[in-house]
Design a protein that fits this description.
This protein is of the alpha+beta class and 394 residues long. Helices cover 50% and strands 14% of the residues. It contains twelve helices and nine strands. It binds flavin-adenine dinucleotide.
Length: 394
């Protein structure tokens, strides 16, 4: 179905990103998949070309446009270019981490961090998950205690500009190896929700160690790591917003993270569909093309329909996000529905490729492995259904 979602400016931005990706990422992508990481230079190159921090005010070097459709079209081009693992680092930086800096940084923090985020010299990550707490975020145990000239948490200590001493560990952190700035959920008080704060931990702080780059089923060129904190001294000047607001800040920003995942999920389904459509018109069996079998026609007709239906919902959600009206439940609906669709569609596309679909040199094979995690990260399908059912009063 023809979309009327983008203006010429968005289309031009998407085409420019695609040209960048085809030149700077695609030729090296399989090497980076084998290496398990995308080089940091990809971020600085992307930054130079204006593909990072589109929402950042111009005074800090950003694009100054508060319109998620620029993120959306970039995310879609990542999928269509077949560079999911490398692209995720960029989309996480733009779609998921940046909003915390944009909304919660004070002037001093904005000056310190936003220019580097835009240029790609400061790569970002967000660390919520711990070995003992994933779905249940309120169970995190990484602690941040005010020290020395601090005082009582939540009052004079923060105002006086003391130091937090951070201890604990995080796991499964996307951009975990590459990241310079990590938005870290820490416990600053006993209350499950009001005792949580967001602190920025920076590369090079004593006691901040990165574990190994985790070996995964898919998304190989995306670095995913464990982080550990042993008596890391973090200035109070690195606190985002006020102490104790962390949980509320996460609840406010998670819908955009979930939209980003949902946008990419539909785009990944679309990319697999397009690849498969080409493949079945070329591959022959029983003296005819695979595409001429009624089963193939019906499967692809169903997939085309499902993608169009999902895309219409996604575009509507993005409009609501832009208007500041996207609620938590709608973002959860988009996330679980579109990622389940992605898994279903790519599985069926792989089947139509036969044995070739199982070979990693075929994009559909990598898409299959890459897709599995989208039903898990950013909140699992089960947790998303919990959010939706809560909105129903259950
Ligand atoms: C590749 C990858 C990248 C990631 N990147 C990041 C990142 O950058 N930052 C970050 O903070 N985290 C990240 N994560 C972590 C991810 O968000 C968590 O894995 C996810 O939230 C699930 O948590 P868990 O793994 O602890 O599973 P668990 O919480 O242990 O869940 C296990 C199972 O139980 C189910 N379950 C749990 N609670 C309920 C319930 N109340 N009702 C019904 N079912 C339930 C879950 O749905 C799941 O099926 C990443 C994970 C992966 C795999």
């Amino acid at each position: 179905m023809q979309r009327k979602h983008y203006d010429a400016e968005h289309e031009a931005f998407g085409e420019a990103f695609r040209a960048f990706a085809d030149k700077a990422i695609v030729p090296n992508y399989m090497d980076w998949e084998r290496a398990g990481i995308t080089p940091r230079e990809v971020f600085t190159e992307a930054g130079k070309s204006g593909f990072l921090g589109m929402q950042v005010p111009e005074q800090y070097g950003g694009g100054g446009v508060d319109d998620f459709r620029f993120n959306q079209i970039l995310d879609e081009q990542v999928a269509l270019a077949g560079i999911t693992g490398s692209g995720l680092g960029i989309t996480l930086h733009n779609d998921t981490c940046l909003p915390y800096f944009l909304t919660y940084c004070n002037d001093e923090q904005s000056q310190r961090w936003l220019p580097g985020i835009v240029s790609g010299e400061l790569i970002t990550a967000i660390a919520m998950t711990e070995p003992g707490a994933g779905s249940d975020l309120s169970g995190i145990r990484t602690s941040a205690k005010l020290d020395g000239n601090g005082g009582t948490p939540g009052s004079e200590g923060v105002a006086a500009g003391g130091t937090y001493v951070v201890n604990g560990s995080k796991t499964f952190i996307t951009n975990g190896i590459n990241a310079d700035l990590v938005v870290t959920a820490v416990r600053t008080g006993a209350d499950k929700h009001k005792g949580m704060s967001l602190l920025i931990l920076e590369r090079g702080m004593d006691g901040f160690e990165r574990g190994r780059n985790l070996d995964k089923l898919g998304m190989h060129s995306q670095d995913t790591a464990e982080l550990s904190f042993t008596d890391v001294r973090v200035p109070v000047a690195n606190l985002l917003g006020a102490e104790g607001e962390g949980f509320a800040q996460l609840v406010k920003k998670l819908p955009q993270e979930r939209m980003s995942i949902a946008v990419s999920a539909v785009a990944e389904a679309q990319a697999a569909f397009q690849n498969t459509l080409r493949y079945v018109q070329d591959r022959k069996a029983f003296g005819t093309t695979i595409g001429s079998f009624q089963n193939t026609k019906f499967v692809l007709a169903e997939i085309a329909t499902e993608i169009d239906v999902a895309q219409a919902f996604i575009d509507r959600c993005v409009d609501r996000l832009n208007d500041g009206e996207l609620d938590v439940a709608d973002a959860a609906k988009a996330k679980w529905w579109c990622t389940e669709l992605q898994g279903r569609v790519i599985d069926r596309c792989l089947q139509l490729h036969g044995g070739y679909g199982y070979m990693t040199e075929y994009p559909v094979s990598r898409a299959y492995a890459d897709a599995r995690v989208t039903r898990i990260y950013g909140g699992t399908t089960e947790i998303m259904k919990g959010v939706v059912s809560k909105s129903l009063g259950l």
